[in-house]
């Protein structure tokens, strides 16, 4: 996509005026209709927990071809970044979204939320969807989604997904390392704990909860941009990773509007399991006391979509999922690389509309129903 400047459109993750992600528990999707075809959209809350609300989007005026579960990434941004993906799927599918709650609004008494709980929430959403559903995961949500599919397959769960699409997800960060994946793989827990984790301040229901806060994220991005602009030689030895197109193409004001806190436990466990230990690849990921084995997946159709210009999760990191699922027959494997597509274009914009979304829909149409 070159160095064109990216802004978040009204169909993408733009935040309503006065509702920056960090200052509200949930921003919401605000989808009441789709235009092609012209249909009303019904939004319902199917389940509510301390950490997320399971939303259902459906169009009463058409018969859905199936149900798709769409877990947003827990990476410090609002769930609304998946809005354009929801809109792309709605003409054909009922869509379920676990809408994560900003941790600064979750009281300490509710406990912490780690990677294990992330996997469990995706499993719960698939069970709410019912047998034969699709699962579409972007970036951070890819590893727990693959884990959820593996756990359900191993248990013979009838609600295991019939199709799984992974978009720009770090399944094996060493397959084609980026500055970000190298930085996170080399990080030490005590450094992350001391540099990135702070308690929620007074004035919020989650006071005292340990988080990787939106305020800390803003400081990291602002400092990295300053050093890149004025002291580029320092980046090789500073604690700020190269965030690729995010810091090069997204205005800081836009980025800050979509930031939310991340529960410290999830932040640290995700980095440790995905980037430091590569737990899905090495067999070291444990869920509910049981080793997660993607090799247990036999019936799910696996699609991976990677952007050729993705400097955050480079091509190869997501496609590594195919080697972890050797029991799937060849026709249930498809690895796509989209030309002119960076990480941001995997969930919005022209490359998403013309390349990514049609590929996902074609795969789901083939295997659902």
UniProtKB/TrEMBL annotation:
It comes from the Bacteria. SUPFAM superfamilies: alpha/beta-Hydrolases (SSF53474). Residues 168-365 form the PHB de-polymerase C-terminal domain. It holds the Pfam family PHB_depo_C. InterPro entries: AB_hydrolase_fold (IPR029058), PHA/PHB_synthase (IPR051321), PHB_depo_C (IPR009656). Signal peptide: none annotated. PANTHER family: BLR0908 PROTEIN, POLY(3-HYDROXYALKANOATE) POLYMERASE SUBUNIT PHAC. This is Poly(3-hydroxybutyrate) depolymerase. It comes from Paracoccus solventivorans. The lineage of its organism: Bacteria, Pseudomonadati, Pseudomonadota, Alphaproteobacteria, Rhodobacterales.
């Amino acid at each position: 996509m070159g160095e064109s400047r990216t802004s978040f459109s009204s169909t993408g993750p733009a935040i309503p005026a006065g509702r920056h992600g960090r200052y509200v528990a949930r921003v919401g999707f605000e989808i009441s209709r789709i235009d092609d075809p012209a249909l009303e959209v019904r939004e319902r809350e199917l389940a509510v927990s301390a950490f997320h609300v399971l939303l259902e989007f459906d169009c009463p005026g058409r018969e859905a071809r199936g149900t798709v579960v769409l877990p947003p990434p827990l990476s410090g941004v609002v769930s609304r970044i998946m809005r354009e993906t929801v809109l792309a799927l709605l003409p054909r599918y009922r869509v379920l979204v676990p809408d994560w709650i900003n941790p600064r609004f979750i009281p300490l008494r509710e406990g912490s939320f780690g990677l294990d709980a992330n996997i469990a929430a995706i499993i719960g959403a698939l069970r709410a969807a019912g047998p034969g559903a699709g699962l579409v995961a972007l970036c951070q949500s890819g590893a727990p989604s693959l884990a959820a599919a593996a756990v359900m397959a191993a248990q013979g769960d009838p609600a295991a997904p019939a199709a799984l699409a992974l978009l720009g997800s770090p399944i094996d960060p060493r397959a084609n390392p980026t500055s970000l994946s190298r930085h996170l793989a080399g990080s030490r827990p005590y450094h992350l704990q001391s540099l990135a984790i702070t308690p929620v301040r007074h004035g919020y229901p989650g006071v005292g909860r340990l988080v990787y806060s939106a305020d800390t994220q803003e400081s990291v991005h602002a400092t990295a941009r300053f050093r890149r602009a004025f002291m580029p030689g320092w980046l090789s030895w500073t604690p700020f990773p190269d965030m690729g197109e995010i810091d090069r193409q997204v205005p800081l004001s836009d980025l800050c509007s979509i930031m939310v806190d991340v529960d410290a436990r999830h932040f640290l466990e995700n980095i440790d399991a995905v980037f430091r230990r590569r737990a899905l690849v090495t067999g070291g990921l444990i869920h509910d006391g049981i080793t997660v084995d993607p090799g247990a997946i036999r019936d799910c159709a696996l699609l991976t979509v990677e952007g050729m210009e993705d400097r955050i999760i480079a091509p190869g990191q997501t496609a590594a999922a195919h080697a972890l699922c050797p029991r799937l027959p060849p026709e249930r494997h498809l690895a796509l690389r989209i030309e002119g597509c960076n990480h941001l274009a995997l969930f919005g914009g022209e490359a998403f509309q013309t390349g990514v979304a049609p590929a996902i829909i074609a795969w789901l149409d083939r295997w659902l129903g």
